[in-house]
Amino acid sequence: MMAKYPLLGLDLDGVILDHTEMKRALARKYGLSVSRRETSSDVFNDLIADEAKGPIQYALYDHPRRALQAPLFPGARRGLLELKRRRQPFVLISRRKNGRMARKVLVAKGLWGPFLDARNTFFVERKKDKDIMAKKLGVRLYIDDQPSVLAELASVRRRFLMDPYDAYSDDASYRRVASWREFLNALR
Asked: Which InterPro entries does the protein's record reference (predicted)?
């Protein structure tokens, strides 16, 4: 039986989890003052010195306490509920290096079980691996917070960029959205 809707791929960090304020706090530890706009992943990665990237990424994604403190992206829970209500099939494809910690965060946020589980959650290493996984799974729609990731998703027909702080320019290869509500409306 064919699904009514094409398979949707979701990114975790910057789409479901919001690291804005934690990035700002961590940047201050390294003497940088960054605006919310500058916490957008591709922009932030260009601003941070190479020697600070490892410690900041550890604090955001792997530190036993800090990683669990990441709040949900505004509207994410309601958005996931709406996707389920619409019977929109979705998978999570994330570049989290520590899948165990990511699952702990999803459990702590109440998302593991009701929305995500071992059947629809996948962790890959590199940006281009997201496309390999998306192709393997048959993902036709994908939302990410990084234009550099969306550029790698050659097999995905419709791409969306979560850009709440208007950090990126328009691009013909994706549609920019500023919120989950805007994203859900764009899926119609």
From this structure: 5'(3')-deoxyribonucleotidase (IPR010708), HAD-like_sf (IPR036412), HAD_sf (IPR023214)
Name the residue with tokens 């919310």: 36
Name the residue ranges covered by the structural domains of the chain: 7-18+70-187, 20-69
Q: Per-residue pLDDT tens for 139-185?
A: 999 999 999 999 999 999 999 999 999 999 999 999 999 999 999 99
Q: Which residues are catalytic?
A: 11, 13
Question: Hey, what are 154's tokens?
Answer: 């050659």
Q: Which of 144, 179, 161, 176 is nearest to 74 (CA)?
A: 179
Interstrand relation of 121-123 and 139-144 (parallel, antiparallel or unpaired): unpaired
Greatest alpha-carbon pair distance for the chain in Å reads 56
C-beta of residue 124 within 8 angstroms of C-beta of residue 132: yes
7-18+70-187 CATH: 3.40.50.1000
Query: CB atoms < 10 A from the CB of 164, how many?
Result: 22
Q: Taking Cα atoms as reference points, which of 135, 92, 87, 132 lies closest to residue 111? A: 92
Strand spans (E) along the chain: 7-10, 90-94, 121-123, 139-144, 158-162, 175-177
